[in-house]
Amino acid sequence: MLGSKNSGEAGKYYYIFTRDLGMIHASAQGVRKMSSKLRFVLQDFAYVNVDLVQGRDFWRVTSATKTSQLEKITKRPETFKIFTNIARLLKRLLAGVEPNEALFVDLLGGLSVLEKISVKDAAPAGGQGPASGWRETLHNAEAVMVLRVLNNLGYIGDSPTLKDLIKSPFEESMIFEISKSRNHILRQINKALKETHL
Questions:
Q1: What is the structure's pLDDT at 123?
Q2: Whether the model pTM is above 0.70
Q3: From CA 34, how far away is CA 16, in angstroms rounded?
Q4: Angle at CA 183, nearest 5°, toward 178 and 184?
Q5: What phi-psi label fits residue 98: left (phi over 0), alpha (psi between -120 and 50 degrees) or beta?
Q6: Per-residue pLDDT for 124 more than 50?
Q7: Where exactly does CATH 2.40.50.140 map onto the chain?
Q8: Is the pLDDT of residue 64 over 90?
Q9: Rounded Cα gap, residues 41 and 31, in angstroms
Q10: What is the model's pLDDT at position 131?
Q11: Could you tell me which of 123, 176, 113, 178 has the C-alpha nearest to residue 147?
Q12: I need a surface site. Which of 35, 48, 78, 152 has the fewest CB within 10 A?
């Protein structure tokens, strides 16, 4: 779930990035009522299994269940902020129903890595304390995730410098290795975002 907005008296309209359909918009009627069983499942930025039926104008959620994955990512303000930034980017770049399983798998991998990063895991930045190193590690994680989203959507060309970051499976180790090429990565991201014209 990449976000939602209220619809009608007690409904909601959701932005959902799916493995099989890509980005879709779906409604759920009565979900804001206290009696709704879906109320606590269909949360923004949750990773859930959703059953849908296609209506004339948009999809409709018929049922949903939790997956127990990515439940901690929204509980820390720092990781939640990164997740919302990535969600905003995807909503901006993905238009219409178009499956992109590679992007879905990559995003899930990146968010799983982001969720696992803790203060004690982060290498101190320039000899500073662990909290400072943790923040730098989170910034690096966000940079790699944005780079890989843009690459999956065809906005990053062949670059020998970035090859390992965009072609290898998403692993935690790559986040700790990018500090030296961070400026180059950010330049590539900014260039790609300009090219989207969005």
A1: 47
A2: yes
A3: 23
A4: 85
A5: beta
A6: no
A7: 3-66
A8: yes
A9: 10
A10: 60
A11: 178
A12: 35
Whether domain 3-66 has CATH 2.40.50.140: yes
Residue type, 30: G
Within the chain, residue ranges assigned H as helices are 77-93, 101-116, 130-152, 163-167, 172-177, 182-196
Please tell me the distance from the alpha carbon of residue 27 to that of residue 5, in angstroms, as a whole number: 10
Contact 175, 140 (CB under 8 A): yes
| Cα–Cα distance for residue pair 194/139, rounded to 1 Å | 21
Smallest Cα–Cα separation from 86: which of 174, 187, 2? 2
Q: Which residue has the tokens 């509980």?
A: 75
The Cα–Cα gap between 3 and 81 comes to 13
pLDDT tens for each residue of 154-178: 888 777 777 778 877 777 877 777 7
Among 31, 32, 14, smallest CA distance to 23 is for: 14
CA distance 53 to 35: 22
